[in-house]
């Protein structure tokens, strides 16, 4: 996967995680809040991975 793919996946995970977290808070569902937070962290990690790939020219 290239830099752009990683960054697009990151954005998707951040958005989905944010939605899950908001719904979990609105419905008092701690499990959903935790899942949303975890998905947002996954998105952040993918974003960093994409940035590293961009800096190294997709050589990794």
TrEMBL record:
It comes from the Bacteria. Pfam families: CsbD. Gene3D superfamilies: YjbJ. Residues 6-56 form the CsbD-like domain. Belongs to the UPF0337 (CsbD) family. This is UPF0337 protein.
């Amino acid at each position: 996967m290239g830099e752009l793919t990683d960054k697009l996946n990151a954005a998707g995970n951040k958005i989905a995680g944010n939605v899950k977290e908001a719904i979990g808070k609105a419905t008092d569902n701690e499990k959903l809040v935790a899942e949303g937070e975890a998905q947002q962290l996954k998105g952040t990690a993918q974003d960093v991975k994409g940035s590293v790939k961009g800096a190294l020219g997709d050589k990794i």
